[in-house]
Amino acid sequence: MDSGLLCYCRAGFEPELAAELTERAAELGFAGYARTERGSAFVHYACDDAAALSQALPFSRLIFARQKLVSIADLATLGARASHKPDRVGAIRDALERSLPAGGAAFGDVLVETPDSDAAKPLAGLARALGNALRAGLRASGHLTPRDDPSRPRLHVVLVDGDRAHLGIANPGDRSDWPMGIPRLRMHPQAPSRSALKLEEAFLTLLDAREREAWLRDGMHAADLGAAPGGWSWVLVRNGLHVTSVDNGPLAPHLLESGRVDHLRADGFVWSPKRPLDWMVCDMVEQPRRVASRMATWLREGWCRRTVFNLKLPMKKRWDETRQCLAAFVAEAERPVEWRARQLYHDREEITVFARMLDSTRA
């Protein structure tokens, strides 16, 4: 039995995720420790009661994690035999027999994945082949439902190399539903910049389907601070919003031709709207604490109902900076605020935050 949480992250941000898990677990009263290697793209947080910690620390509240699993086994020799072809399916099936209660419910799905690291990329072909064989083998043994069932826990097999894997469980409603925790978005040819993918991913990741339907409607109004060349404004327009794009730099000409964008040449840190807006988004390259403070002002003054913004992190002490920026943001808002934050796949040295005032008169 390998008790703990197994979380994926962006390669290079293992120390940040390890620090986040350690601090959050301690705040919740769970003792444990984090194990990881720089560049591995995952962190294992060992603790005695992983199921209870997982329930107390939902995936939606983690910032640097792309996926959260309850770890159940570390297979250091994945089906290796001295004189035979490795039986990886049999090794995984045997590990499940040892790790799970007798007669336990079957999994609703199984994913064979690799960490999102350079070292793991050559394993992609093996992961695909093993996934096909494992699905059939686990259905035959009763460990997997005859058809995929998203209402049940999902088994994850995380290949570290050709002969080692971690087994973990992702529970419904407390996981990323994308393989490897990565939404595969395609760059639209009309998007003014690749930054459009960040806002698209933010809406998919930080809002649920009901919220997207209610909060991104035709006829709503938004501001995009630091808009040039217009990637985030373009995403808002695609969702039916009218946008005031605030930037002294130029916007993509076809964006202005949409009839839904007003380009205002001004400083995004100084400008404020004449009337409340449904949304304000901001992807300005600035000190994260200055951005957090300005975003808090927008909510405190009632200039917008909801916001998505990025915080560009320093090279060192990134978890400490994240914590302090978000705490300052909440304090400076001066009223109850809901926030959700994540380091998105399309982020780099930054995190993306969604926030709204809880005492708003409109949903």
Topology:
Elements: E1 4-8, H1 14-27, E2 32-35, E3 42-47, H2 50-56, E4 67-75, H3 88-99, E5 109-113, H4 124-141, E6 154-161, E7 164-170, H5 196-206, H6 209-215, E8 221-225, H7 231-238, E9 242-246, H8 253-256, E10 261-264, E11 277-282, H9 288-300, E12 304-312, H10 318-333, E13 337-342, E14 350-357
Parallel strand pairs: 5-6, 8-9, 8-11, 9-10, 11-12
Antiparallel strand pairs: 1-3, 1-4, 2-3, 4-7, 6-7, 12-14, 13-14
What keywords describe this structure?
24% strand, alpha/beta, single chain, 2 domains, elongated, 363 residues
Would you write up a description of this structure?
It is a single chain. With 363 residues, the chain is an alpha/beta fold. The protein folds into two domains: 178 residues, Alpha-Beta Plaits (2-Layer Sandwich); 162 residues, 3-Layer(aba) Sandwich (Rossmann fold), CATH 3.40.50.150. The protein has ten helices and 14 strands. The longest helix has 18 residues. It is elongated and about 70 Å long. The termini are far apart.
Q: CATH topology of the largest domain, what is it called?
A: Alpha-Beta Plaits
Q: How is the main sheet built?
A: 7 strands, mixed
Count of helical stretches: 10
What's the N-to-C terminus distance? 45 Å
Q: What is the number of domains?
A: 2
Helical proportion, percent range: 25-40%
SSE string, helix = H, strand = E?
EHEEHEHEHEEHHEHEHEEHEHEE
Q: Quickly name the level 1 CATH class of the largest domain.
A: Alpha Beta
**Structural class determined from secondary elements:** alpha/beta
